[in-house]
User: Fold these one by one.
Assistant:
Number 1:
Amino acid sequence: MSSSTRIRLIEPADAAPIAAHRARDVEAFRRWEPAQPAGFFTPEGQAERIDRLLARYRAGAVWPGVVLADDQVIGQVTIGGILPQPHLRRGTIGYWIAGVAQNQGHAGHAVGLALRVMTDELGLHRAEASTNLENLPSQRVLRRNGFSAYGVAHSSILLDGSWRDGLLWERILGD
Ligand SMILES: CC(C)(COP(=O)(O)OP(=O)(O)OC[C@H]1O[C@@H](n2cnc3c(N)ncnc32)[C@H](O)[C@@H]1OP(=O)(O)O)[C@@H](O)C(=O)NCCC(=O)NCCS
């Protein structure tokens, strides 16, 4: 149930469940997530990707998390584009939840927990996100976490072979 939603930093051992979820959901995610090379859907390819994410984490550019339900990996939540400079202090949230675990409130809870990481651990002041204009579930997740839509980025992401507009979201985290 959603009450068990947790997030933590990604680990090398998360490669296998992430590859399995993304291979199973490849058709359902085609509209919403960018195309990936074949290696993305294998444990070996995911392990390399996790190594790269953790190197960028150590450099302070990203906080790469997984979402857990009852201690099983069911998705990812990533704080990217971290700008820690005192006059910026912002980051961008992205996330996905495996089809088998959707519509149980996990993304909503995971984004709430990621916002706590942004304030308490990363000391950020502003959170940003971007959704497809038609991605109503993702928009619900953001609204439920206090985000407001503030603009449209035209032709900003290549999804399923077409350049799509992105709806831009913001939430001020305070000081
Ligand atoms: C978007 C996504 C992360 C949501 O994950 P989730 O765990 O199912 O989200 P939650 O259960 O917390 O919330 C989903 C909300 O969407 C609503 N919803 C579900 N299907 C809907 C639909 N077709 N139209 C409108 N709202 C819908 C649910 O009712 C819920 O809203 P509520 O809190 O008001 O009840 C998940 O669907 C996903 O990974 N999709 C594919 C990848 C993706 O879109 N990533 C985000 C890119 S910005």
Note: The mean pLDDT is 96.
Number 2:
Amino acid sequence: MKKVVVLGAGYAGLRVVKELVKLKTDAEITLVNKNDYHYESTQLHEIAVGNKKPSDISFKITDVISKKVNFIKDEVVSIDRPKKEVHLKSGKVLNYDYLANSLGFESESFGIKGVDEYGLPLIDIETALAAKEHLENTLADYAKSGDENDLHIAVCGAGFTSIEYLGELVYRLPEFISKYNLPADKIKIYCIEAVDKILPMFTQDLSKYAVDYLEKRGVEFFVSTPIIEITKNSVKSKDKTFNANTIIWTTGVKGSHVIADSGYSQRRNRVMVKDDLSSSDDPNEFIIGDVSAVMSASGRPYPTTGQISIAQANFAAKNIDARIKGQETKKFTFKSLGTVCSLGPKNGVAEINVLGHWKLKGREVGPLKKIVNDRSVLELSNFKEMLASR
Ligand SMILES: Cc1cc2nc3c(=O)[nH]c(=O)nc-3n(C[C@H](O)[C@H](O)[C@H](O)COP(=O)(O)OP(=O)(O)OC[C@H]3O[C@@H](n4cnc5c(N)ncnc54)[C@H](O)[C@@H]3O)c2cc1C
């Protein structure tokens, strides 16, 4: 029997496995993930402020995959692609005939000094929890230290993750102020961005709505301000130093380091795939989710998102199944359903491409984000089908 190995149980990996089971693919399927749980990375900003607990956004992998799938909790160290072997941290080596590589994203430092030491990224449950603990401990410290930098929070980057983080932060701030008896007038929240745009994926009016919403709640934006260094208590640009004892690093992500370590031709650990999502040097290897780059009709790669990861996974599973059966693979096509950016649990901005093109802002977007998240959990776990396949 052919062996299919799936690396990573994020949106992409979990969906590939689910689809392969649904297709009744004639293969032995193995899923490898470094934790025994899946987490919804689209909600990490909520963990990082404490508006949600890890158990709210994660579930045990073996609870949601078919018993036909062999699950291995281990870390992938590298892939010996000529030998078709996956090397794991435990020393175990897995052989495969077909590979779905969906190892996901890591924080990108862009080589800026001090980022790895002092920036707090939001890339998984551990880092989001570390950011939350750092934030709360630092605010609590003010009572003893009297150091105003304990009340200063710098958020680096003004893209999607930064804005969603800021939305959660300003929502919870009144609670922190009363819990730690903080002087509200001394709290400073900086958002520092290299380019001149905030939330570049949205139209100008929606991005302005988000900025106004956050500014009214105390966020100060600094655009066209490339960061050149981070220290323990400051963010430095060429002309300005922002003093802050909490520094959130959400400037962007890259693919898993395993990509570069395994000798792929890559840029920021993303591999440009063929139109059927296979790698250009092995037709039986599919690269999907945040470790892949997929060219769009505009001639630029699609932005990496959970949404496209799931769409890719559906395609990749069908193409793996086709290869095993000796059939032609199909070209990947994608139409974005739109983007929803929350501003805390009760507000946000959205552009939706369903039954036309809709631009939304305000309180109706809060529940919309929740619906999208709940749907994703339900679809990934799909309890009914899961039980049926056991
Ligand atoms: C705060 C935030 C909000 C976001 N909001 C949205 C949104 O609203 N909509 C949207 O579409 N996208 C959103 N995104 C982007 C989205 O989360 C990613 O594009 C998506 O998670 C990519 O899915 P993936 O399966 O490729 O990777 P991941 O979700 O990163 O999953 C990778 C999996 O592989 C595991 N893994 C990693 N390395 C190893 C290893 N070496 N060995 C074994 N296992 C490993 C990880 O533990 C993880 O389980 C958001 C991202 C963030 C950070």
Note: The first strand starts at residue 2 and ends at 7.
